[in-house]
Amino acid sequence: MRYITVDNLRPGHKLAQNLIASNRVLLLKKGKELSPSTIEKINSLGYQGLYIDDEISEGLEIKDVISRDLRIKTWNELQLLCLNVGANTTGGIRRNLSTLKKLSNSMVDEILHNRDTMVNLVDLRAFDDYTYSHSLNVAVLSIILGIELKLSRYMLYELAIGSLIHDFGKMLVDKKVLNKNGKLTTDEFELVKKHSEFGYNYVRDYSDITYSSKIVTLYHHEKYGGGGYPEGISGDSIPLYCRIVSVADVYDALTSDRPYRKAMLPSDAVEYIMSGYEDSFDPVVVDALTRKVAPYPVGTCVRLSTDDVGVVVRNYEESGMRPRIKLIENNKLTNKIVDLFADRSTLNITVQGIVNM
Ligand SMILES: [Fe+2]
């Protein structure tokens, strides 16, 4: 299987996974061959892309770092939390946070189990509920970075909870401003920035979450070189979990479609974050990101400097820009392998490397 964006879906592509709505209703079954009308339906549901099976991706397995079931459970719990915050039901919020704690534990376990997997960050990102998918992705990436930074099991767990609730305060910002389809006025931007304080003030009194987790809501927009918000603190004065979540937060935002811009490619997003080395982000965390995020995820079609086209079948942590590739000829996958990691000749992926097929 491989992941393609919805604009590249064609009749005849087969779904490689069940397509499930946020309310757990099965929309389309795995194996379903897409028709023009099902493609239209997928488009109208707001999906960015999905996994398909076709001749190019035959035999290609893509491992996710957490199970689909856990993704859906966590996504649903975040949605419930949002509803309870909206209705201000304290008991409900307490229950949601306690469930999220358990789910955080499972996330850490599953990611530790798959620790050798590089991020092929493609997921259930769909619908207009960016906040839940975003919080979930930020948590997954933060845990991966935490493992790379050799945090203990308990610290990973604290980091997981902090990252899941990092944008909690956004639930307390006027939805009209938050979802505005256009440039924010200065006042509106100042209001959105308040989400850090709103979130922290709200969760501060929940004694069953540790201070180290809760503080992530307050300081995840601080910058390593100073000048962030709300307090403008810098360097190691910013707690470690906040420095990790800050990188994961920006990476996920950049690689998501937003009302005001299209998603960036993983390689471009990493490049962008590297440009904020020391200034915006902790260099140690940025280094961990470059080791763990595959610029060309498995299943991506790329063009080589020889003009050959192929599909990425394996990534190497030591050299993200030089994956193992299976060549495609006449729109069919061949058995010809080009391993850019093993072969350090002048052969490489072209600058405009990704090919839509
Ligand atoms: Fe935020």
Question: Please, could you describe this protein's structure?
Answer:
- By secondary structure, the protein is α+β, with helices and mostly antiparallel strands.
- It starts with a strand and ends with a strand.
- A hairpin with a 4-residue loop joins strand 6 (301-304) and strand 7 (309-314).
- The chain is globular and about 60 Å long.
- The mean pLDDT is 87.
- Helix content is 41%, strand content 13%.
- The longest helix has 24 residues, at 90-113.
- Helix 4 (130-148) packs antiparallel against helix 5.
- The strands form three sheets. A five-stranded antiparallel β-sheet has the order 9-8-7-6-10, with no helix packed on it. The protein has a three-stranded antiparallel β-sheet with strand order 1-5-2, with no helix packed on it. Strands 3-4 form a two-stranded antiparallel sheet.
- The chain is built from twelve helices and ten strands.
- It has three domains: 2-53, Molybdopterin biosynthesis moea protein, domain 2 (Alpha-Beta Complex); 68-292, Hypothetical protein af1432 (Orthogonal Bundle), CATH 1.10.3210.10; 301-354.
- Fe (ii) ion is lined by residues 167, 195, 220-221.
